[in-house]
Amino acid sequence: MRSKLRMVNYLLNTANKYHYKKVIFEMYFINSFFMIRIPCSFFIVWLSATLLFFSNSLIAQTGKVFTHADTLRGAINSERDWWDIMRYDISVTPDYINKNIVGISSITYKVVKGNRNSKMQIDLKDPLVIDSIVYNGKQKLFFSKDANVWHVTVPKQNTGALNRVNIYYQGKVHEAAKPPWDGGWTFTKDSLGRPWMTVTCQGAMGASVWYPCKDHQSDEPDKGHHSQ
To answer: Beta partners for 121?
Structure first.
């Protein structure tokens, strides 16, 4: 609670420091019988307190406590912000009997700012694993794993450059418990008894349940993708 009060106090002090009290908000209501004029600093504190209250209510209702893995998945950090996805080329070979897959995810990306950080974050969910990563078809890259994130050591790259990493991966897949409402792979049979496989990855599960990618909704491939 103290940390939340400190946050509100910080916002108020910041507003006062930059003289935001001189700025007036005008709030018009739909019935338009009256208008409220309030100082901006008051508005900032009110909005912050409201957001904190509703975030606490949401956590209390859902019981969800955000973890380190959640932060890695949801944040646009220094390992994600310097590159922009251009295209995915994905090749996957599923094993229906053993419920395994072997695949290659080829990611073409554009360097949007010189990578001060020599790391690139790639997302791939357990139990799938990355075997190797090759940069521009020549150079093998070193990587390490942290939860469902793979930190890849990359060479220095200039702003505007187009580069590619080929990611070779394989392993046992995550199976969906209640498809399509639950994400993951489904292994079943059609009406004629023939093997049939599919994968669902909408919502919280994400595409990294079946191939290595930048698993964040803010960065979709500008030039599409091809999968086989």
So the answer is: 151
Looking at the DSSP bridge assignments, the partners of residue 46 are none
Look up the CATH superfamily of 72-172+211-227.
Answer: tricorn interacting facor f3 domain (2.60.40.1730)
The mean per-residue pLDDT over the stretch 23-41 comes to 43
Cβ contacts of residue 100 below 8 Å, gap of 6+?
A: 94, 170, 171, 172, 173
Going by C-beta distance under 8 Å and a sequence separation of 6 or more, which residues neighbour residue 186?
175, 176, 179, 197, 198, 199, 200
Residue indicated by tokens 């108020």: 12
Average pLDDT over residues 105-132: 90
State pLDDT tens for residues 175-194: 888 777 778 888 889 899 99
